TrEMBL record:
<keyword id="KW-0813">Transport</keyword>
<feature type="transmembrane region" description="Helical">
    <location>
        <begin position="203"/>
        <end position="222"/>
    </location>
</feature>
<keyword id="KW-1003">Cell membrane</keyword>
<dbReference type="InterPro" id="IPR037294">
    <property type="entry name" value="ABC_BtuC-like"/>
</dbReference>
<keyword id="KW-0812">Transmembrane</keyword>
<dbReference type="GO" id="GO:0010043">
    <property type="term" value="P:response to zinc ion"/>
</dbReference>
<feature type="transmembrane region" description="Helical">
    <location>
        <begin position="91"/>
        <end position="109"/>
    </location>
</feature>
<feature type="transmembrane region" description="Helical">
    <location>
        <begin position="173"/>
        <end position="197"/>
    </location>
</feature>
<feature type="transmembrane region" description="Helical">
    <location>
        <begin position="33"/>
        <end position="52"/>
    </location>
</feature>
<feature type="transmembrane region" description="Helical">
    <location>
        <begin position="58"/>
        <end position="79"/>
    </location>
</feature>
<keyword id="KW-0472">Membrane</keyword>
<feature type="transmembrane region" description="Helical">
    <location>
        <begin position="6"/>
        <end position="26"/>
    </location>
</feature>
<protein>
    <submittedName>
        <fullName>Metal ABC transporter permease</fullName>
    </submittedName>
</protein>
<dbReference type="GO" id="GO:0055085">
    <property type="term" value="P:transmembrane transport"/>
</dbReference>
<dbReference type="InterPro" id="IPR001626">
    <property type="entry name" value="ABC_TroCD"/>
</dbReference>
<dbReference type="Pfam" id="PF00950">
    <property type="entry name" value="ABC-3"/>
</dbReference>
<feature type="transmembrane region" description="Helical">
    <location>
        <begin position="229"/>
        <end position="248"/>
    </location>
</feature>
Length: 292
């Protein structure tokens, strides 16, 4: 596989993984909680390194999942205590993220783990960070992590599709028919956590929010069916990743930043031209009603 080929594959995997996970965040109106988790998992990564003294991907995923769940738990506790949800998210994620930054400075200054890398990512290094499988096969670590996380996310969605769907659209009905709403909620937060940390090498913690939210938001404007929304979100995530890479190469600018920008461009186009929910379609519909 060529250098550019691996970058495109890893970027596409990040787009698919973030896209399908983000659909449920859009439906649950939890976009800002995704922003919080994408920052606080930095603490989980640092703690995993401090405890294990290893940058092994499995330890990173476990640490990120635990801190991501703690983030969702603390936000829920504060919100249930009467504090506004946005304030709860702001307090929790800034505190946990700041602790992660301090721990990186104190205990991880001599390893390949720094705030800039965690926040911004650097996909150009992905093809060189290889893991040996067997005597001959070498694959990028980011590819293996994203492939594993994508498989985990797909298995969870397949096994709990009905529960995720009902709790996303009508949580009151879910409670009435006996679905463990909070358990499904924390399961989804775990998915967001491991998806975020798996995407660090490609887009970083900050820009992963764009890949989690924008494809799902675009897909939401294009369909009324969840299954179709998942597929469209994955495709739009891939489209933004690939076009972002080529535009960045053409203009010699940040690849991660351009991928996020392309997500915004695609959303803007869908917002304008969606046949049912687009701004132009709505204007034409209103004009037609007035003329009738």
């Amino acid at each position: 596989m060529s250098y550019d080929g691996w970058i495109l594959i890893v970027a596409s995997l990040a787009g698919i993984t973030c896209g399908i996970t983000g659909c449920f965040l859009i439906l649950r109106k939890l976009s800002m909680l995704a922003d919080a988790i994408s920052h606080t998992v930095l603490l989980g990564i640092v703690l995993a390194y401090i405890i294990s003294q290893s940058m092994n991907g499995l330890y990173m995923l476990i640490g990120a999942a635990i801190v991501g769940l703690l983030t969702a738990f603390f936000v829920q506790v504060f919100y249930s205590s009467g504090i506004q949800e946005d304030a709860s998210i702001g307090v929790v994620f800034t505190f946990l993220f700041a602790v992660g930054v301090i721990l990186i400075t104190l205990y991880a200054g001599d390893v390949h783990l720094d705030v800039e890398h965690a926040l911004m990512g650097e996909i150009t290094f992905v093809p060189w960070d290889l893991v040996t499988l067997g005597p001959l096969l070498e694959l990028p670590k980011a590819f293996l992590m994203l492939s594993t996380v994508l498989l985990i996310d797909l298995i969870i969605i397949f096994l709990f599709y009905k529960e995720l769907k009902i709790t996303s659209f009508d949580p009151s009905m879910a409670v009435a028919i006996g679905i463990p709403v909070m358990l499904i909620h924390y399961l989804l937060m775990g998915m967001v956590s491991i998806t975020t940390v798996a995407s660090f090498d490609s887009v970083g913690a900050i820009l992963v929010v764009a890949m989690l939210i924008a494809p799902g938001a675009s897909a939401y404007l294009l369909t009324e069916r969840l299954s179709v929304m998942l597929v469209l979100s994955a495709l739009l995530g891939v489209a933004a990743a690939i076009t972002g890479y080529y535009v960045a190469s053409w203009q010699d600018v940040s690849i991660a930043g351009t991928m996020a920008t392309m997500n915004g461009v695609i959303f803007a186009l869908v917002f304008l031209f969606s046949p049912t929910k687009g701004l132009i379609a709505k204007k034409l519909h209103i004009r037609k009603l007035k003329t009738d």
